[in-house]
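Re: [ENG-882] Designed sequences occasionally contain unexpected residues at chain ends

Forwarding the minimal case from QA. Structure tokens:
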């Protein structure tokens, strides 16, 4: 995948690493088949390919919002997507970097008592 990473990010070690990983993605989408959050939510942005695109937007200097952060938060970091990637994209490392970069750019809403995704889906039985 081609990138237009800003000078600012190209001068940082994390930005460079993210740029290299993103460039190794060929956008084929094979990874979506093995991603549990994509299977559950059916939104491209909740799958690895969509999240790679969101992180690409960060290092290209586009504006990011708490919605972008939510889609990265929803990733389980299970790395199942890496097992189905023919290009060996290091997605797990990339999402770690993306989360770090977006944390610096957004403010988490403090008025919400519970900002955890999947609150409706993850209900645990009472023991
Ligand atoms: S399978 Fe790999 S190369 Fe294809 S879209 Fe997913 S991360 Fe990119
Ligand atoms: S690490 Fe897991 S949840 Fe995150 S994009 Fe990959 S397969 Fe999906």
């Amino acid at each position: 995948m081609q990138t237009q990473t800003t000078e600012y990010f190209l001068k940082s070690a994390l930005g460079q690493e993210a740029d290299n990983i993103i460039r190794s993605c060929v956008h084929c989408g094979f990874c979506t088949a093995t991603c549990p959050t994509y299977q559950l939510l059916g939104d491209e942005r909740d799958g690895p390919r969509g999240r790679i695109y969101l992180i690409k937007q960060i290092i290209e200097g586009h504006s990011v919002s708490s919605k972008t952060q939510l889609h990265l938060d929803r990733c389980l970091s299970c790395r199942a997507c890496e097992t189905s990637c023919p290009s060996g994209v290091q997605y797990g490392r990339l999402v770690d970097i993306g989360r770090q970069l977006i944390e610096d750019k957004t403010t988490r809403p403090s008025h919400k008592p519970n900002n955890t995704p999947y609150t409706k889906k993850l209900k645990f039985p009472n023991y």
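QA comment: On inspection the terminal residues look reasonable. The CA atoms of residues 31 and 81 lie 5 Å apart. Proposing we downgrade this to a documentation issue.
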